[in-house]
Design brief:
The protein has 20 helices and nine strands. By secondary structure, the chain is α+β, with helices and mostly antiparallel strands. The chain has a seven-stranded mixed beta sheet, with helices on both faces. The protein has a two-stranded parallel sheet with strand order 8-9. β6 and β7 form a beta hairpin. The chain binds cytidine-5'-triphosphate (CTP).
Length: 424
């Protein structure tokens, strides 16, 4: 009965937990599944990664576990944490802070108190539950702070009054969970959250931490509602006080959601699209060029995402001109250097028929094309210079797009034409 929650996990996860439990027991440690995964199990939502709290040496436990399972792991000595990699999944183990509880090994009561204190430091009651992975009560839910009740009532509730000041990122997390689960921020929590916002708590957070949370925030499925809610609460002041969003921007976010959905469906193999880039560029778009760049730099985004965001803002004018019937090779030349994120942005930003048609043509057809004629085929017909060969192949590719050449024979014939005109 107590195991029923864990039964919802995949066989792979169940196996890892069983093995972890046994190795922990042999090592004399107590371990617990904690945090978001417990919440998701209770909500019947899919679980991708696991978080385990260890009353003992987490690094040593993971080392033993990795050896037993023949899997790789990574340790972080300064945090006393270790991560086990299992297929596509990640299982994080965190060490109990033994120095704070020097007697816990000797006193079982204090052992419980460790878990209680660990959970008490967390953000919301719904994220502060644990499931025992210990033999004596394997699978039992541990809920000191009314997390299950709040889950049932759809409430986001902090555990202590200074929570938002201790970690202002929890403001973004509150909005994220509220919107993700269609919950409500509990009234007292809401008041404290508003106070923290008014005190400018978010502006005090290091930009890199803000960036990481913002990425999570904007990577949620259909984040339009999230953006709207956060804007109504905080105006995105933590990004910059000059961020101003109007009706059109919100319409854009809705179109962006559809465009991203369309892209993910049509291009399943390229599911990699970082949708947050599209939304972030939308949020920042009204900033001046200098401000836009300053914000992007301040948050320290990775180079390619930084470049994508910049090209979106810089090239809007150029892309707008694509709203006409164009030669296929023209469309290709104009769009080939953009990332999927930028293309999706343009698609959502300009609800213009021809422009959208051109972007779709590029994504669905033109960008997938390859010529069948190779350099060695050109060598056979007497082309020696590699730079000339490169020119011919490039031109041939464009003609293939424009003329719809299908067979290698058609391409070779065209290549000969190109060579003839370029020689004479
Ligand atoms: N946590 C916290 N305060 C934060 C971040 C995290 O208390 N600012 C705690 C919460 O208990 C959370 C756990 O750490 O459940 C794990 O954090 P994370 O993986 O970021 O969140 P999840 O709750 O798992 O959320 P998600 O479903 O978005 O991964």
């Amino acid at each position: 009965m107590t195991n029923s929650r864990l039964k919802k996990l995949t066989p792979q996860f169940k196996n890892i937990l069983r093995v972890s439990s046994k190795i922990a027991q042999k090592s004399g440690y107590n371990i617990y599944l904690v945090g978001g995964v417990v919440r998701d199990l209770l909500l019947n939502r899919p679980v991708f990664d696991l978080d385990i709290a260890v009353e003992g040496d987490a690094i040593l436990l993971v080392k033993r576990l990795a050896e037993y399972l023949n899997k790789s792991f990574r340790k972080h000595h300064s945090f006393g944490t270790a991560t086990l990699y299992y297929g596509n999944h990640k299982i994080d183990f965190a060490t109990a802070r033994q120095e704070k509880y020097p007697h816990y090994g000797a006193l079982p009561k204090v052992r419980v108190s460790f878990l209680e204190k660990d959970l008490a430091r967390r953000d919301f009651s719904i994220n502060a539950m644990a499931i025992s992975l210990n033999k004596k009560n394997y699978g039992q839910l541990i809920d000191f702070y009314g997390g299950r009740r709040d889950l049932k009532n759809g409430l986001i509730r902090i555990l202590y009054p200074e929570s938002f000041l201790d970690d202002p990122l929890r403001i973004l997390r509150a909005v994220r969970f509220e919107q993700r689960f269609s919950f409500r921020v509990e009234p007292k929590t809401f008041l404290l959250m508003k106070n923290a916002i008014e005190a400018g708590a978010l502006q005090l957070v290091h930009p890199h931490r803000l960036r990481n949370e913002l990425i999570l925030f904007l990577s949620e499925a259909r984040p339009y509602r999230y953006i709207k809610r956060l804007y109504s609460l905080e105006n995105f002041n933590f990004i910059d006080e000059s961020v101003i969003l109007n009706k059109n921007d919100f319409r854009f976010f809705i179109r962006a959601q559809s465009a991203i959905k369309f892209y993910k469906k049509e291009f399943k193999e390229s599911n990699e699209i970082k949708s947050w880039v599209v939304y972030l560029a939308g949020i920042l778009l009204n900033l001046s060029d200098e401000k836009y760049l300053e914000v992007i730099n301040r948050f320290g985004f990775r180079k390619n995402q930084r470049d994508q965001a910049i090209s979106i803002k810089e090239d809007l004018g150029k892309i707008k001109k694509l709203d006409h019937k164009r030669k296929a090779s023209d469309i290709y030349k104009r769009l080939k250097s953009y990332s999927p994120e930028a293309l999706v942005f343009f698609y959502a930003y300009f609800p213009k028929k021809n422009l959208r048609k051109n972007i779709r043509l590029f994504l669905e057809v033109l960008s997938q094309q390859k010529i069948k004629v190779k350099g060695r085929d050109l060598k056979k017909i007497g082309i020696q210079s590699s730079s000339f060969m490169g020119e011919v192949l490039k031109e041939l590719f464009y003609r293939k797009l424009d003329k719809g050449l299908k067979t290698k024979g058609q391409e070779l014939k065209e290549a000969k034409e190109i060579i003839k005109t370029n020689k004479s």
